[in-house]
């Protein structure tokens, strides 16, 4: 890849000019006022400090790798939507929609957001990819809707309360209700699923070129109110890490049993990122497992991604097994049921390497406490440190 010229403000500052002429002048001058003598001593001290060798053991900043802390977290939209597709008629559909909304309230995202923020706060990644960042609205039947739960705002507030200010820099809207759905004879609701990339505002990362798109491949499911298409997509943003750009992508591939749709979406994502002029980091819930890791239903998505040159950060440091991230019950109040790994931090590009990776939100101590005692999400998150070594240098653990 051709090296890009430095942007304004990125150039190294010029070296200070040595004061050799001033020093010679001071040597020839025999009379100093008290003020001149003080100035001369200060100048001499500055020159001595500038020319002194670095203390033994001081870090060589020119050799230090560029580190980027990242995380992926499917925060769970709050309810199992599959009963909507099992309803046999309009009346059953309304009852199913009411049950979905009630389950979303039971799983209490404001409380869960506190637990998720605790997990994120323990690592403070610079870039965070979120999936299932739901927007729920409710209102009188036939009347205007008002927002009842905006998961993005709730989580941003929980993070800010812990001293972590994040900004949403890229969002893609996935599936949702095209029209409000009745949940009773007097009320209606709407829902929108989003994926969001957050960047920590104090990270000093330069951010540009936010892009979002929907996949051409989309699952269509039958329902009592007619066919429901489930669009999904991805977002990308370029971040500058100590002078070098990295493209970060966030996605959530098909979940509702659409193996072939999921494979097509994965291939679309690979193709879309193939033209990146920078190394790439992918965050997301891919709804696919590595081959030979039970109890997953196998499809080719993971193999397609790895075959395209992406490195699975968990497997890179721990091997293909373990690192389970998914399987909690829809109500989030059952014992630990995480059984498989479908959430990933992946990277592609010369010099990139994961030096740390950890699953978060999967331990009993991570739950909300209280009644009900909820898991932070039906997924665990994954945090990782990705480094980009400088040319000609190795990255050491």
TrEMBL record:
GO MF annotation terms: 5'-tyrosyl-DNA phosphodiesterase activity; metal ion binding; nuclease activity; single-stranded DNA binding
Cofactor(s), names only, from the UniProt record: Mn(2+); Mg(2+)
Keyword match Translocase: no
GO biological process, one term: double-strand break repair
Species per Swiss-Prot/TrEMBL record: Nocardioides euryhalodurans
UniProt entry keywords in alphabetical sequence: DNA damage, DNA repair, Hydrolase, Magnesium, Metal-binding, Nuclease
GO cellular component terms attached to this protein's record: cytoplasm
Name of the protein this chain belongs to: Endonuclease/exonuclease/phosphatase domain-containing protein
Domain Endonuclease/exonuclease/phosphatase: 71-379
Domain of life of the organism encoding this protein: Bacteria
PANTHER family, per database record: TRAF AND TNF RECEPTOR-ASSOCIATED PROTEIN, TYROSYL-DNA PHOSPHODIESTERASE 2
Pfam families, alphabetized: Exo_endo_phos
InterPro entries the UniProt entry points to: Endo/exonu/phosph_ase_sf, Endo/exonuclease/phosphatase, TDP2-like
């Amino acid at each position: 890849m051709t090296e890009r010229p430095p942007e304004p403000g990125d150039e190294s500052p010029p070296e200070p000019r040595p004061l050799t002429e001033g020093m010679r002048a001071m040597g020839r001058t025999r009379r100093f006022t008290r003020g001149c003598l003080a100035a001369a001593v200060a100048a001499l001290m500055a020159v001595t400090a500038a020319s002194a060798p670095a203390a033994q053991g001081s870090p060589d900043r020119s050799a230090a790798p560029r580190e980027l802390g990242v995380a992926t977290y499917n925060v769970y939209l709050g309810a199992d939507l599959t009963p909507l597709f099992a309803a046999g008629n309009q009346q059953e559909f309304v009852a199913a929609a009411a049950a979905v909304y009630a389950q979303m309230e039971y799983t209490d995202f404001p409380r869960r957001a506190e637990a998720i923020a605790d997990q994120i706060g323990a690592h403070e990644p610079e870039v965070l990819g979120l999936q299932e960042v739901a927007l729920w609205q409710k209102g009188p039947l036939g009347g205007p809707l008002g927002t009842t739960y905006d998961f993005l705002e709730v989580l941003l507030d929980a993070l800010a309360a812990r001293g972590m200010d994040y900004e949403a820099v890229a969002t893609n809207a996935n599936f949702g209700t095209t029209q409000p759905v009745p949940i009773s004879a007097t009320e209606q609701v709407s829902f929108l699923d989003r994926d969001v990339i957050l960047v920590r505002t104090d990270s000093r990362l330069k951010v540009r070129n936010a892009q979002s798109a929907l996949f051409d491949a989309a699952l269509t499911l039958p329902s009592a109110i007619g066919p429901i298409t489930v669009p999904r997509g991805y977002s990308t943003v370029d971040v500058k890490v100590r002078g070098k750009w990295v493209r970060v992508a966030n996605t959530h591939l098909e979940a509702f049993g659409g193996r072939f749709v999921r494979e097509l979406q994965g291939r679309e994502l690979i193709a879309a990122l193939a033209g990146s002029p920078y190394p790439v980091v992918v965050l997301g819930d891919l709804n696919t497992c590595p081959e030979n890791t039970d109890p997953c239903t196998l499809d080719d998505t993971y193999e397609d991604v790895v075959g395209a040159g992406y490195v699975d950060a968990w497997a890179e440091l721990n091997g293909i097994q373990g690192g389970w991230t998914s399987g909690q019950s829809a109500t989030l109040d059952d014992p630990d049921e995480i059984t498989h790994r479908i959430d990933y931090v992946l990277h592609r590009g010369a010099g990139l390497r994961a030096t740390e990776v950890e699953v978060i939100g999967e331990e009993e101590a991570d739950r909300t406490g209280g009644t009900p005692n909820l898991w932070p999400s039906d997924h665990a998150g994954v945090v990782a440190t990705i480094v980009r070594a400088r040319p000609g240098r190795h990255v050491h653990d």
